[in-house]
Amino acid sequence: MCGIVGYVGRQKAAAIMLEGLKRLEYRGYDSAGLAVLQNNGLTLVKCIGRVAALAKLASGKKLTGTCGISHTRWATHGGVTDANAHPHVSSDGQIALVHNGVIENYVHMKRFLLEKGYTFKSETDTEVLANLIAYHYAKQPEPAVNGEGSRFLEAVRKTLLHVEGTYGIAVLSPAHPGELVAARKGSPLILGVGDHEHLIASDVSALVSRTQNVVYLKDGELVHVTPAGFTLSTLDLADVSPVIDQVTWSVDEAELGEHPHFMRKEIFEQPLALENAMRGRFSADGSSANFGGLNLTPADFRTIDRFVFTSCGTGWHACLVAEHLIERFARIPVEVDYASEFRYRNAPLDRDALFFVISQSGETIDTLAALREAKRKGYKCMAICNVVGSTIAREADGGIYQHAGPEIGVASTKAFTSQLLIAAMFALYVARMRDMSFADGVEYVAGLKAVPDLARRVLEQAPHIQQIALRYAKYNDFLFLGRLSLFPIALEGALKLKEISYIHAEGYPAAEMKHGPIALISDQCPSVFLVPKGELFNKVLSSMQEIKARKGLIIAIVPECLDLPEGLADEVITIPDCHEAALPVLATIPVQLLSYYIAVARGCDVDKPRNLAKSVTVE
Ligand code: F6R
Questions:
Q1: Annotated catalytic, 47?
Q2: Would you call 2 a catalytic residue per the annotation?
Q3: What is the pTM of this model?
Q4: Which of 616, 617, 618 maximizes ligand 1 atoms within 8 Å of its Cβ, making it the mutation to test the pocket?
């Protein structure tokens, strides 16, 4: 969602913040703004559009201040206008603030502030916060009781005690040059600890070019920052000892390099991401997997009679693959739920269920809420996350890090296939505790170890897939069809295509097609078939015949050992033969490439598709 960068130090804040905002733009990108303290006052620059538009506007001002806050917006309250862009400044000019989240009781607070004479320029909930802090600031005793900055900090703290909803905020005041106050509840916020400088950001990618040392703020914490140091406390005034973590990836990993888009870069990084997902995770005898981070013993696993997996979007598709693989190989029932539904539907859970969430970012608010709900009910909760130190990773009882590296493209690619591979390893892990034999385990491990090289072979087909994409980019409706573990990949193919190219696409189990979606078939609605090996091969061929009989066009993604009847598919993309557990990973890569090249052919901004944001931190 929205991105936040704040800076206090010795350098010019605006340049540093603009660089950080550029890296955060994938979080939300309808408007941007910054405020710096200089010449005993506040200089504010904001506009609708991308960070480049803000940089252009800022280049016309003399921005020399060394303390500032900045923001990229993904609109929630109020349309996309200059006035609604952040930062927002209180009507008395004392407080400037950037915010990520939603203030739920803003109507009540706004009424109160209007009565007190404060005025508003925007339609946002955020401006209410700026004015309420200004109100509490004006009410604080003068001079400061507990030293410099405490009056400012206290005004923010008092305001937040009244707030219902979610926030990550960074606040500055012209009366307190060289100071920032930041706080979080439900929206991510990180403090970067540099050399005589500190940064506040909603994502580590905005910080890593200046420091690898970070403090992940927890819900209910506030930080007061100056160039020389910082103090961390809670809303109820308890001091907090900060834990400084090291970011493990470098700024180069978040650069485009030779690629035109992050999505392309990340698709091609998949072999490496898959290697990293497996590194050090197979047992010494080569027949099983190890997951030290789960903090559970084999004896603990013996008592588990069901797994519950929840996630959102692409992660939910990974949950469906996990369901298939765990039930198929370990014979333990798995339930899959959308996190956004789970959190409200008060689902009855088995007594000995183990709860899993899957989240690339580790910040998705619905997934976090589902995790908290399951924990509240007393369930142990595991997380499969890519972002180290993210809120979900920290709140889970244990988990598995993906180590896929930063994913910047809004459409998830390498994080998804890495989740699929981890699901396959986890299925092996529990299967080997139940009925899977040593020999089958060894074969399974060998099958997974081969995946990165097989993925490289699929990627070699990119030029072929690009040619297909050029022929099919003109169509406005697509069906994606698969069965068993390939049904979630059909869903994922449809999601990828619609989110980056705005083409209407639907994913279905291939056999369900004749129960309704077949009505869509014509020579204007191509079908992408994910063709399985084994007993369902002939069934899928029949579904393809039904489409052909109705003049439908077919793109078939087929294991290379299978021969399709001559002329049945209009286009064929082959994938190498592989272990059954690896098939979803390899079948995903062609649908990613197809969506990518179609979106590029249609002139879409694949890394920043309209209306979307990388990490959905509001409900
Ligand atoms: C689609 C996509 C989204 C995310 C979803 C959950 O390409 O990326 O559907 O999968 O918003 O995000 P995370 O995994 O960060 O919780």
A1: no
A2: yes
A3: 0.85
A4: 616
